[in-house]
Amino acid sequence: MSVALGLLAVVVLTLATGYFVAQEFAYVSADRLTLSQQAAAGDRRAARAVRVMERLSFMLSGAQLGITVTTLVVGFIAKPALAELLAPALTALGLPAGMVGGVALAAGFVLATILQMVLGELAPKNLALARAEPLAKALAAATLGYLTVAGPVIRFFDAAATRLLRAVGIEPVEELHHGATLEELGHIIGESEEHGTLSGRQADVLERALAFADHSAEEVMVPRVDTVTVPASATVADLDRIIARHGHTHYPVVGDRVDDIVGVVSLDDLAAMPAPGTPVTELAREVLLVPFSVKLPALVSQLHARGQEVALVVDEHGGLAGLVTWEDVAEELVGEIADENDAPDEHAVRQGEGWELDADLRIDEVALETGVELPDEDEYETIGGLVLHRLGRFAVPGDVVTVELPPSLDPEEPAHATIEVLALRRHVPDRVRLEVTA
Prior knowledge:
By secondary structure, this protein is an alpha+beta fold. The chain is built from 15 helices and 12 strands. The strands form 3 sheets. It has a 5-stranded antiparallel sheet with strand order 8-9-12-11-10, covered by helices on one side. A 4-stranded mixed sheet has the order 1-7-6-5. A 3-stranded mixed sheet has the order 2-3-4, with no helix packed on it. The longest helix has 37 residues.
């Protein structure tokens, strides 16, 4: 083979290697959903690309076969061709005749490697990563043709590899699944926020949406100690005074005991202007009762099916645990919703090196507000509960607990957090200060 023909073959085979490398990385990196949507809109090239991705394992085997064959042939041709090309120049430089062949061969090997790495590997790989979907569509027709022609050979090697894997207890798969776990989606949201693709508000809503299904009525309800009830013996005049004092929208109507639930009255029930002496029991409506452990998606379904805005949460002993409304559920998705009846309140305020927080913030809400991942155990739900759990007694203002933060891959991340009790309410922490330390 002449030097010119050999060099031409090297260039062609190197480009072929680049084709297979681009093919491999394009289909692994391409967004399957994007291509599927384009295919559904009538894009034939996208439809062909989806067909390739449906047999991703087979395509990768074909790409590896092409890369292996072209690389081996390039190595077989390139080194002697380049050595023959370089030999006259090395002789002209005065290199001893006995060394010319070896040096020329070594130089040919280096040049062939550089050519193969740059033109056959790195450039097509970077192109495929940067333009995955367009390249996947552009290569689809040729890829399907190649897989058809080389199919028998690819299947032979695939079968051999499959038997080898099954011999060691591994079951091969034909298609890679592109679904992401909730943890992976959370990581994607965090990365997108860091890089500015998502705003902090957008990331917060998405993170809340991911966690929504894991939360229960107990976690979002207004607890019993904060629920304002109306006795069954009360009249509309009494209800007017209670509403004027507390400003809430919904009030459970209870009998002699708080756990004796009669129904619920709402501000809307006064729109018809009933007589002041009317018993509230005449206005009370049947209310949805749900167990404290019911998950929020199920709670939403029940509220929607009953056409109600409020549900009463019952504990494991059948007693009233609290009250939950559509607003409480919505706040789990979008954060605090303020209205004209709400007093201004800052649940989390950055102060110096730490944060001043409401003690009834859940551990996951603390993470959303501050970025600090506190230990989350079954014994407590809120940061105030964490303090009481660690103290083992009722808290007093000035109490400080130190907690070890979950391990991080970043050695510079803070390893500990201190929580100081600032104020109490009904013997439990009401406001706390959180700081992180190395």
